[in-house]
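Final report, Chapter 2: Outcomes

The project's central promise was a pipeline that accepts a single protein chain and returns its three-dimensional structure in a standardized token representation, suitable for archiving and comparison. That pipeline is now operational. To close this chapter, we reproduce one record exactly as it appears in the project archive, with the input sequence first and the structure output second.
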Amino acid sequence: MKTSTYAVVALIASALLVSACANTIRGVGKDAAGTVHATKNAGKRVANAAQ
């Protein structure tokens, strides 16, 4: 193969890797937001039960 072919293959592989990382980071952000929301709701329920 020519060097330019290797460059194209490397570029495509890099693009796929970066897009996979972006989806993972977005998913972690959603999970963290869900955890914060659930913790906040649990705190409210405990406070209401204590009254």
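Archive annotation: The chain has one helix and no strands.
This record, like all others produced under the grant, will remain available to the consortium after the project formally closes.
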